[in-house]
Amino acid sequence: MRATKRCSKCGVEKSLRNDFHRNRHSRDGYTTACKHCRAALYSSTDTARAKRRAYQRSAAGRAKRREYEQTDGYRAKRRAWYESAAGRAWRAAYAEKQYVNGRAWYESAAGQARVRAYYESAAGRAKRKAYSQSDAARAWRRWHYEQNAARYKLKTRSWRRAHRDRVLVYHRARRTRTRVVWPIDFDGLYAAYCGRCGICDQAVERAVVSWDHVVPLAKGGMHCEENLQPTHLSCNVRKGTSPLEEARQRLRIAS
After folding, report:
1. Can you name the residues that pair with 203 across neighbouring β-strands?
2. Is residue 232 part of a domain?
3. Using CA of residue 66, residue 71, residue 75, residue 81, what is the dihedral sign?
4. Number of domains the chain is built from
5. Does pTM surpass 0.85?
């Protein structure tokens, strides 16, 4: 290994060990500028700050910062600081400022474009579907309906008046599917399931049983003995018009 090195600032050949700072990121393990030139450069803090600020605002600085923010090391370091005592204290001290800045970015053109892109992506659709089927979303919808029941009913009546043809077609199709052509032995069907719910497989009393269509009427199912099963009322409501296996999967996740 050579003992001298030419300074990138003054151009003078100087001792490598005595006149240069160590830098583990460089090829030879030392800085490119000597100690004297670096001291002169950073003797004025305003000059150093202005230089760093100019580089950070330049295209090269922004590109390098974006590249570094995508690394696993930066994410791990940021997550560790975020969960540390200093991070929690900083968030508590600047909570209002974070909310204002976040809201301003969200309402900006760039924020709306990014939100719209995520909303239309596969990940966004999957997240919305998972949340819409959660108990928290159901509880919020129930609470919101109770708080705005009159507005919901008015909106429903307005839609039905504006789409009378679609409502008529729906009711005709439903009456056709629910018309009983042959008698249904509900007691025998209850005994065939051994008095257990067809969705959660738990015991259900005959007096409070709720009959569920395995293939929903809204999806072309018929009102016949082969398409009926005894269920709890809560299980039947939770299943809705979804397939039977999907309802069972949601019930297993919730439990």
Report:
1. 196
2. yes
3. negative
4. 2
5. no
